[in-house]
């Protein structure tokens, strides 16, 4: 593969595409990015495998399934990759008769019995799912990419024209940055905010559906190896990246109503970030000149860690066909 590859973006999408393209035999792969870990949106994430706020479901399901499989393989092969497993519970205020739409993507799944539901909830699911802990996983991916000859370059790209060149493949993994870079009006921020507390033995992770009148709340807990992530919010079209301390008590109260041990847990920090929302994930090829093409891969919303390997495989197969 003698084509030159330029990847824009060094979050979970750009790094996994970099490694996937290297594995497929592309030898000349460079990542250009404004920010690298630990300063990307991907560093703010909980890293839980769970499809959330990304469309369309028909494509998300396939990508999520592949990502689940790849994370299980990575976990087995590289204990240092920061991938752990968690017992994941999802609670609903009303009874659910149908299975979760993502159920076929996971290995262990079942509906919850009535006795397993906290007060105020009538339905729910259980699944055992992976977490790719960003503060370990992103450096792991970045180091592997470099060890395999990949080059990292800090650079802001203001327009695609800047980087169009012959015999070159560009992979656009700029997340929310694609809005400005391409003038893509379908891209929008979904603000998130989390509280990190010390994990004193909590093993399960929880998410629950919130009543309509609290549609900006997204209540969830993610039990990682050393901390628990308490979320949160999902504020559409809110561009504020700073932490709003006024939200913290509400987040802790809602999470500890589901997991009482969290109420007294030591707070380790706060983070806020903007999920790269889009009406639908954009994963497609666009020709920029007869010998230069861009493969877009952005707009993964709240599912960057849930679809990254499935998307990277599809990007790679488009690149190989060029
Ligand atoms: C609070 C919170 C919790 C979350 N929890 C989860 C979770 O548990 N599970 C999950 O699956 N997802 C979660 N997400 C969503 C997840 O973080 C995103 O889907 C994911 O990070 C998107 O990754 P990305 O690589 O596409 O984009 P980003 O991580 O945003 O990376 C974009 C990259 O592009 C670069 N860039 C942008 N524009 C330019 C430009 N013009 N020139 C050069 N470089 C540029 C940036 O510098 C950066 O390197 C969460 C998000 C938030 C905010």
List key phrases describing it.
about 325 residues; six-stranded mixed β-sheet; binds flavin-adenine dinucleotide; alpha/beta; Rossmann fold; nine-stranded mixed β-sheet; globular; 6 helices; about 25% helix
Describe the structure in your own words.
This protein has six helices and 15 strands. With 322 residues, it is α/β, with parallel strands linked by helices. The strands form two sheets. Strands 3, 4, 5, 8, 9, 10, 11, 12 and 13 form a nine-stranded mixed beta sheet that branches. The protein has a six-stranded mixed beta sheet with strand order 6-2-1-7-15-14, covered by helices on one side. Helix 1 links the parallel strand 1 and strand 2 (29-33). Helix 1 (12-23) runs parallel beside helix 3 (134-147) and helix 1 runs parallel beside helix 6 (304-321). It is globular and about 60 Å long. It binds flavin-adenine dinucleotide. Flavin-adenine dinucleotide is lined by residues 8-14, 32-35, 40-42, 44-48, 156-157, 173-177, 181, 192, 194, 222, 232, 273, 275-276, 298, 300-306.
The CATH architecture would be 3-Layer(aba) Sandwich
| The top level CATH class name | Alpha Beta
The main pleated sheet reads as: 9 strands, mixed
Order of SSEs: EHEHEEEHEEHEEEEEHEEEH
* Strand proportion: 25-35%
- Content-based structural category: alpha/beta
The radius of gyration is 20 Å
**Global shape:** globular
Ranges where pLDDT stays below 50 over 5 or more residues in a row are none
What is the number of strand segments? Answer: 15
CATH topology: Rossmann fold
């Amino acid at each position: 593969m003698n084509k030159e590859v330029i990847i824009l973006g060094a979050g979970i999408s750009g790094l996994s595409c970099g490694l996937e393209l290297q594995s497929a035999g592309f030898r000349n792969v460079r990542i250009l990015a404004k920010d690298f870990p630990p300063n990307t949106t991907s560093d703010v994430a909980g890293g839980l495998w769970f499809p959330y706020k990304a469309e369309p479901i028909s494509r998300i399901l396939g990508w999520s399934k592949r990502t689940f499989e790849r994370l299980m393989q990575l976990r087995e092969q590289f204990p240092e990759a920061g991938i752990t497993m968690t017992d994941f519970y999802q609670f609903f205020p009303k009874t659910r008769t149908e299975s979760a739409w993502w159920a076929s993507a996971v290995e262990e799944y079942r509906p919850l019995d009535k006795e397993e539901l906290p007060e105020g909830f009538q339905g729910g699911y259980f699944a055992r799912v992976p977490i790719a802990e960003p503060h370990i996983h992103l450096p792991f991916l970045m180091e592997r990419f470099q060890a395999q000859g990949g080059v990292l370059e800090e650079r802001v790209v203001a327009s695609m024209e800047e980087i169009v060149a012959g015999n070159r493949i560009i992979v656009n993994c700029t997340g929310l940055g694609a809005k400005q870079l391409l003038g893509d009006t379908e891209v929008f921020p979904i603000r998130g905010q989390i509280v990190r507390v010390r994990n004193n033995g909590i093993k399960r992770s929880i998410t629950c559906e919130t009543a309509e009148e609290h549609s900006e709340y997204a209540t969830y807990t993610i039990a990682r190896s050393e901390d628990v992530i308490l979320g949160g919010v999902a504020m559409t079209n809110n561009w504020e990246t700073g932490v709003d301390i006024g939200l913290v008590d509400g987040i802790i109260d809602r999470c500890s109503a589901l997991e009482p041990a969290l109420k007294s847990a030591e707070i380790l920090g706060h983070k806020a970030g903007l999920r790269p929302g889009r009406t639908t994930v954009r994963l497609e090829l666009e020709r920029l000149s007869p010998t230069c093409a861009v493969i877009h891969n952005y707009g993964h919303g709240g599912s960057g860690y849930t679809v990254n390997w499935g998307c990277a495989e599809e990007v790679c197969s488009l690149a190989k066909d060029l």
